[in-house]
Each structure stands twice: as structure tokens, then as C-alpha cells.
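Much of what follows relies on a compact textual record of a protein's fold. A record is reproduced here so that you can trace the correspondence yourselves:

. . .
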Amino acid sequence: MTAPDAGRGIGTRQGVTGAQQWNGASRDAFRILHVSTGNVCRSPITERLTRHALADRLGDPLWGGLIVESAGTWGHEGAPMEANAEAVLAEFGADPSGFTGRELLDEHVIRADLVLTATRDHRAQVISMGHSAGLRTFTLKEFTRLVKAIDPATLPPLDDGMIERARALVRAAAALRGWLLAPTAEADEVYDPYGAPLTFFRSIGDEIQQALDPVVTALTGVRAKA
């Protein structure tokens, strides 16, 4: 992966207003930020599959206060997601409509309660931006591995609200990091399907879906419908 040039790819957008202002993480919401390179393949698939899974399990358009977004370290600002990514989402029953790519900015990291990246390089780039991101930034597959080791009984009950449960899940995963290492360096990677045929996009979609399932189950306390 080639690092962005100075002033491009990771930075600060000028003139942000309204919901885009730097206001830190809201106590009334829990923001999940998915990060890949261009924000046209992996992170859009992960974003929309996460939203689909939450809506499917909760039946709630607000997903219990969970907000799911994505951005790219070399973001194709304003670009649509790749057609093959849209096709994969449609096959899962997820909605690909209305998506536009975003460049990863400081404000996105500041507001995120959990950052899930496609690769270790993306994770390193997010952490290098500062903002105390280290304890809330994981690769997707790394977070899945850690979540599987967490006893759901140790998390706040859903009666306390999903936001508190989600924050506790991130703290528990961060505490386990370093104890549960990946069996191989490649085990934590979701490879880039950009420019690949639909069959490879499908395999990446399956990978992402399998990694997301235990995460969404832990967040919601609800297993996927059979």
C-alpha cells in the first residue's frame, strides 16, 4: 500500500459545519467507523452489511443508538462504491444505494467510538493520526477474534442500553489485545478486491460477513436469524 502524499488521503477538511464539526463522541450514540483504502470496496461493504445486520436483529431504524459509517485512507471523495461491491451487497439483501466515498479525516476518528479497519496498515494509519485512537481501533478480524473470547455475561445487560454495552465491549477487547494474537500475520487482513472479478468480491463479502456476525451478536445480544 502506498502512503498518501502530504495533505491528501488523511487530513482535515476545511469549512466543516453542522454534524461534521469536531465534537467528540456523543454520549447518546455509539459510532462505528469502517476504514479501508479507497472507501469504494471493502469499507462500504462492511458498513452496509453492519447496518443490515443491526436492522435485521433489532428491527429498529436507529439501531439502538449505533451509527455506522466508513471512510478511506486514500478516499475516493464523492465516488460511488464499485459496481461489484453493490452486487455483493444486493446478494446479501443489504441496501447499497446512496453511498458516496469519503476521505478519512481527523473528525471521523475523533467522533468514532470504535474503528474497524480492513488491514493492519489501515489500523496503523488511523492510530498515527492521534486522538487516543489506539484503544478503540482494531482490524475487523482482530476485533472478531477478541470478541469471541469475551463472555457476554460480563457485559452490561441490554436493559442498560446498547450504547453502554458497546462501550464495555470495546474496553474488554482492548484489554485482551496482546493476549490473543493472530495465528498468522495474514489472519487479520481483508484483502482489497478493487478491480477484481465478481467472484473475488463475493469471497471478500463472505469473509466480511463471517467476521461481522459475532461482533453484531455481541453488540445486540441477538443472534442472526436462521
User: Anything to note?
Assistant: The two ends are 38 Å apart (CA to CA). The CA atoms of residues 80 and 98 lie 8 Å apart. Confidence is low (pLDDT under 50) at residues 1-25. The first strand starts at residue 10 and ends at 11.
